[in-house]
Amino acid sequence: MKLVLQILFLCWATLGWSQNLQLSKDTTVSVITFGAGNNLNDAFGHNAIRVKSRFFDIAYDFGRYDFDAPNFYLNFARGKLNYLQGKNNYKNLISLYKNEDRSITEQNLNLTTTQKQDLYNTLEANYKKNQGAYLYDFFYDNCATKIRDIVETTLDGQLVYNVPKDYQEQTFRQLIDHNLHWNTWGSFGIDIALGSIIDRKATAREQLFLPEKVNVFFNNATLKNNSQKLVTNSNAIYTKQGINGNKVSAFLISPLFILVIVASVILFITYKDYKNNTRAKGLDMVIFIITGSVGVLLFLLWFATDHTATAYNYNVLWAFPLSLFCILQILKATPKKWYIAYIKFMIVMLCLMVMHWTIGVQRFAPALVPLIVALAIRYIYLLRYYKTNQSV
Question: Model's pTM, two decimal places?
Answer without folding.
Answer: 0.86
